[in-house]
Design brief:
2 copies of one chain form a homodimer. The first copy, chain A, has 13 helices and 10 strands. By secondary structure, chain A is α/β, with parallel strands linked by helices. Chain A folds into 2 domains: 224 residues, 3-Layer(aba) Sandwich (Rossmann fold), CATH 3.40.50; 34 residues, no CATH class. In chain A, a hairpin with a 7-residue loop joins strand 7 and strand 8. In chain A, helix 2 crosses helix 9, helix 7 packs across helix 10 and helix 7 crosses helix 11. The longest helix of chain A is centred in the last third of the chain and has 21 residues. The model of chain A has no long low-confidence stretch (mean pLDDT 92). The interface between A and B is medium-sized, with 22 and 22 residues.
Chain lengths: 302, 302
Amino acid sequence: MARCRICRQKASIFIPHHRLPLCDEHFVSWFENYLRRTIQKFRMFSREARILVAVSGGKDSLVLWKALVKLGYAADGVFIDLGIEDFSFLSRRVVEDFAATLGRKLYVVSLQKELGFGIPALKRRTKKYCSLCGSIKRYFLNWATRKFHYEVLLTGHNLDDEASALLGNVINWSIKYLGRKYPVLPAHSGFPQKAKPLCRFTSFEIQEYAKRQKIKYIKESCPLSSEAKRLVFAEMMDQLEEQMPGTKLRFYLDYLRRAFPIFQEKVEDFLDHKLVTCARCGEPAISSPCFICRLKEEYQGA
Amino acid sequence: MARCRICRQKASIFIPHHRLPLCDEHFVSWFENYLRRTIQKFRMFSREARILVAVSGGKDSLVLWKALVKLGYAADGVFIDLGIEDFSFLSRRVVEDFAATLGRKLYVVSLQKELGFGIPALKRRTKKYCSLCGSIKRYFLNWATRKFHYEVLLTGHNLDDEASALLGNVINWSIKYLGRKYPVLPAHSGFPQKAKPLCRFTSFEIQEYAKRQKIKYIKESCPLSSEAKRLVFAEMMDQLEEQMPGTKLRFYLDYLRRAFPIFQEKVEDFLDHKLVTCARCGEPAISSPCFICRLKEEYQGA
């Protein structure tokens, strides 16, 4: 192993994207600095903003939360309890313990309480439960951000997530998604401002930060998830990265710089034009009653 | 093997993209019909157009030429002799024999004669000989089309070529290429109209047509070529196709329908604005003297 670029001590990690050998201490400070610079570069939020981090119990969201707090941001957490037996129970425990250690507030939104049922009940009724779960989570994250008076909602999406999702959107030429795929989206039509501050970090870098910060996180992915298709794209990106190191970051950043503005023009106001306010819950939606209110009704007493 | 969709006899081929089992006879007629429909769909050229097919001796260009002639198009051929020893010699023989059997005119453009040197001399001087060879071929194909008074220049690019090149352009977000990647390009600023009538056919389908038409073609690829990078994308597309059949065609056609128009707007007139006429050879170029005239000068007596 080479020597740390900063202190010339023995390096403990090499970051291929940046051709950077670092020791434990300077890897941690590099990580936090690069996070701060990412937040500034994309003008994600100010130093004083009231920030809510969507935490699942996985490494990405916990690392994001911890690093933000270390950087001095006023970041609290929100956890959506999906009601998936052991998985949700354990995740919730991990997140609650983490919040306590961090000394920050944590909001827990239980689907059972808010919706009347959890994801397993959904799975018994429809094959599309996986994408529906995504929509439900987004709904309650937006809802919680507004309800608890936060200005920005953050998620832990990392470079691997973003690059493989981008590849999927490109393979399907989903112009609608391509025109909205940006690491910061301003508040609009009742939705809070959203940002993905880990968008320039690989899964590997985040894992190594978690290790050095002794963060306990849930390693298992959701036992109900069926993400075969997404995995195809993730594996393709990994292969490309292996054969042409740096491709993943370049593919994502060049997209943001060169292609996103072109697509954005095409879909601008697309959402705004179609959005209404749900007459029952008051959330922005594409129809009223919104899909959550319709779900509630449909599953009443089910 | 299933039964032929048309005659219910035993099928000899199954075309996954179209979920179509066919016998030998109906595969050949399907191929030719689909070619005719591709030409019409993209308004590539009229029944009466004077057509020049760029033939290399490989399966794609010979299949294209033969099928066009069978469909009644007035298609002649042009072969660029690159001067690559055995490879060019054999390719030229194959193409000349083929033209004779077809009863159509063949033009042979020899780099040795027109330029003063072949590709091997280029390889001794520069590492970029592979992409330079591509530019040289394009120059002489344009040149021959005009010199011999043809209206449209055709190349044998197939779906695999187009889809993997498209993936490469996307991974690099080469907006300039993405805005010009279309199977027919109208004549402009001294360039002839160009088309790729095989753009909806897979390499496999073309090979099977060649087999059934007993076309003798060169199976070897150029002994000087180094297309490792292009192969990466070709293999990725093949993997995607295997895991999600139909992806290749959908990726390419959705691009043409949904994404190309968006990119095209951005690069429209890009070329025209920058083009001049070479004061020496009279061809359109980005500078005068053009790169071919400069190459000639540079290599004089080399």
